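[Help] Beginner question about ligand-bound structures

Sorry if this is basic. My supervisor gave me a protein sequence and a SMILES string for molybdenum atom and asked me to "get the holo structure". I don't really know what that means in practice or what format the answer should be in. Inputs are pasted below exactly as I got them.
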Amino acid sequence: MEQSFSLPMIIVIAHVINLFCLVILIRSGIQILFDHPKLYWTDNTRDDNHWLRFGKKIMPKDKLWTSLDEAEDPGKLALPGGNHNLGSARHWHFTTAIVWVITGIVYLVFLLLSGQWERIVPTEWGIFGEAVNVFFTYLSLNVPPETASYNALQQLTYAGIVFVLTPITILTGLAMSPALVARFPWFLNLFGGRRQVARSFHFICMVAFSVFILTHITITLLLHFYDSIKLFTFGNLDVDFAKALTYFVGIIILLIVFNIWATIFTLGDQVRVRRILTKFYTPVVRFFFGWMESRQKYTEKDISPFHRVNGYPPKTEEYEKLQKTHFSEWKLKVDGLVDNPIELTLEDIKNLPKQEQITKHNCIQGWTAVAKWGGVRMNDIMELCKPQKNAKYVIFHSFDVDDKGASYYSGLRVSDMKDPQTILAYEMNGKTLPTEYGAPLRLRCEIKYGYKMAKYLKSIEFVDDFKEIGQGRGGYREDTVFFDWEASI
Ligand SMILES: Nc1nc2c(c(=O)[nH]1)N[C@H]1C(S)=C(S)[C@@H](COP(=O)(O)O)O[C@H]1N2
Ligand SMILES: [Mo]
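Answer (accepted):
No worries, everyone starts somewhere. Holo just means with the ligand present. The predicted complex, written as structure tokens, is below.
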């Protein structure tokens, strides 16, 4: 006779951590999705070629709109909820993703070393037929015959979650990193060369996880109530049921309280949540993605016929005046910690060596578009202005000012400027850079998300620290909507 079914404590603990992680990942994921509540199969995203959308906003045909106008409030289910709070949602998502992956690795290593893998890894083809039988048994609301280990359907489902769904979720998540796919464009070939396919599948994985969690809970609690409570808490059927139930209720209350606390805490102080959580996950992001340089080589036929806009053209007198004379009076100031402060006219810039590149733009909100950009390499600008040794960051100042009087700006590392595809662009798709795309000059730094690529450039400043600029978080979006500074995943 086999011993009665039991689970090692490591698996019991990993299972509980997994539950907490999945709830946070799903809630924050919903928040991230709703900032661009449309899913596509193509990277040439328009406002009408999605296969799924949430919300009812229709974009006007006769006037300029931006991707910020398309964002929806996901409601209370999401973490943290509210409109355009995806910055905080991302902090939770990546922090939790790291905890989740580490838990998964511990679980897998244990599974292999202990021989426990035999429980969930199917070894015979007959399992598929058996699983179908169990499925119909459940459908008829009967309990399949008790076995000393998992039944065929359980085994297949658990193996599917661990060895199929989880890897796909991780791969599709990674494929959304602008840095990773800029460095290794082939990575996207797993998804037909399209980031939106990965994004869509990442969403489908979330739905699959949600469906699994709900049916798993229903079946275990409805059909194996006593055993499930015991296994969930102590991994052991011999334990006292009252004790197991107490622990079970305690864990569920903890899960609920933690989620309520995380929501309230985040909405109450997004600056603090950003500071704490980025401290945790940014070093990991830096380690894996920080060294990547852009090697994109899209072709003319990849160019998107439609390219979304984010960030309206500046309405200031200063900008409108310069615009009237086609920026002939405009000058780019390059100063700060440089040996040679310079002022360049558009003519001067166009006389420098020109680089053209066809690259994919990734907005943090979710949309993509491919365009050809023409301009001068930041490396060449640095040859002219000669940044000093202590210059660590570069701040790009724009002309646009919001209703509260804050100017758009974005900060990057001086080392990002050496990336072969970091340019100041004055052309888009072979034509003079159109107003809404950043005339007269905009940054392209192709390893980063769109919000780093300041449009409507006014000046460039080399600094050793950005505490004194704006609200001190290194960029306008970091200041106002609490995005992370790294912008590479
Ligand atoms: N000056 C300025 N630059 C900006 C923005 C802005 O609002 N103002 N928005 C950023 C964001 S979030 C994105 S996604 C890209 C969009 O570039 P596009 O309008 O050319 O598509 O510009 C970035 N640069
Ligand atoms: Mo963006």
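A couple of things worth pointing out: Residues 307-311, 363, 398, 400, 408, 437-438, 450-451, 453-456 surround MTE (ligand 1) (CB under 6 Å). The two ends are 52 Å apart (CA to CA). Feel free to follow up in the thread.
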